[in-house]
User: Which sequence fits this backbone?
């Protein structure tokens, strides 16, 4: 019984559940939002800085006809709602009441809905950035490690150049050249992470190409492409997966940092970074809880990816398994 409880890691399970919850909310998007307007940008100044759990009742005044919107369009981009909400007492007949579980921001927008869509954009940027770094890092690292010689020297020099550049500075340069849009942000973040992936793959390929199964493949006349991508890379995939999971947390941190500094996606598009940038000043005005909510969501997400990486690394560590046994 003690061994069973010893194997249960509550921090790891909490991290896994939290990441799954954030992923489900991001995939559901506007379908899980109280405010389904585009970018959850419906502003109600009379409800600005409402505390978490507060309830408000409204009457809707339709100023122009709201176009019909199918479910797929709502899920992806929200809906155009031209109705105006008029706050009324809860006792008034025909009123509709809504509960703001995480409160509202300084413009009266629902903070929960903004965080859900912010998770979608932040996770989308992070996943595609990691894929960009994976493609560049695995491609160049495998070529450098397998062929060696001048190929290795040239690629290693390029890796060292990118490695020596400060992360934020490199991202700023890319965003200033190509503009502050989603594609540029993904490329900027991907270019800051590919060097570490390339170093890892290069080292693994240098060791793997001297093993007997690679030598046997050469004797059998297999092409370099087949040896590299069908034999070597599948056998070194463990460290690559670990590095990928580590890069997820780093990508979320970088995207949030760029948005916080005003270099990420621009309002009214919500991301975890620009929501944090809008909310953190509320702490100076006494609204500490409203200021802390986006901080808690972001920190828990980054720490959860870190814990997942640690668990994955431990599961691949043969010496640690032997010690625990």
Assistant:
């Amino acid at each position: 019984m003690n061994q069973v409880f010893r194997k249960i890691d509550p921090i790891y399970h909490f991290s896994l559940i939290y990441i799954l919850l954030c992923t489900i909310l991001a995939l559901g998007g506007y379908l899980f939002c109280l405010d389904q307007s585009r970018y959850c940008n419906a502003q109600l100044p009379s409800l600005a800085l409402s505390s978490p759990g507060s309830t408000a009742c409204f009457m809707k005044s339709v100023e122009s006809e709201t176009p019909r919107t199918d479910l797929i369009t709502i899920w992806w981009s929200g809906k155009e709602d031209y109705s105006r909400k008029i706050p009324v007492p809860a006792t008034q007949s025909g009123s509709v009441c809504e509960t703001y579980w995480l409160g509202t921001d300084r413009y009266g927008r629902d903070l929960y809905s903004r965080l859900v869509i912010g998770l979608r954009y932040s996770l989308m940027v992070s996943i595609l950035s990691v894929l960009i770094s994976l493609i560049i890092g695995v491609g160049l690292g495998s070529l450098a490690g397998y062929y060696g010689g001048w190929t290795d020297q040239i690629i290693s020099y390029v890796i060292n150049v990118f490695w020596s550049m400060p992360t934020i500075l490199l991202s700023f340069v890319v965003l200033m050249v190509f503009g502050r849009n989603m594609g540029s942000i993904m490329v900027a973040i991907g270019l800051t992470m590919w060097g570490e992936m390339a170093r890892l793959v290069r080292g693994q390929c240098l060791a793997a190409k001297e093993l007997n199964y690679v030598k046997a493949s050469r004797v059998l006349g297999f092409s370099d492409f087949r040896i590299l991508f069908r034999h070597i890379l599948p056998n070194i995939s463990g460290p690559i997966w670990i590095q990928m999971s580590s890069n997820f947390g780093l990508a979320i941190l970088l995207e949030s940092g760029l948005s916080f500094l005003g270099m990420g996606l621009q309002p009214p598009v919500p991301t975890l970074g620009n929501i944090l940038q809008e909310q953190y000043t509320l702490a100076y005005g006494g609204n500490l809880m409203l200021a802390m909510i986006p901080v808690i969501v972001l920190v828990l997400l980054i720490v959860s990816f870190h814990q997942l990486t640690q668990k994955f690394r431990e599961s691949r560590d043969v010496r640690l398994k032997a010690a625990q046994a």
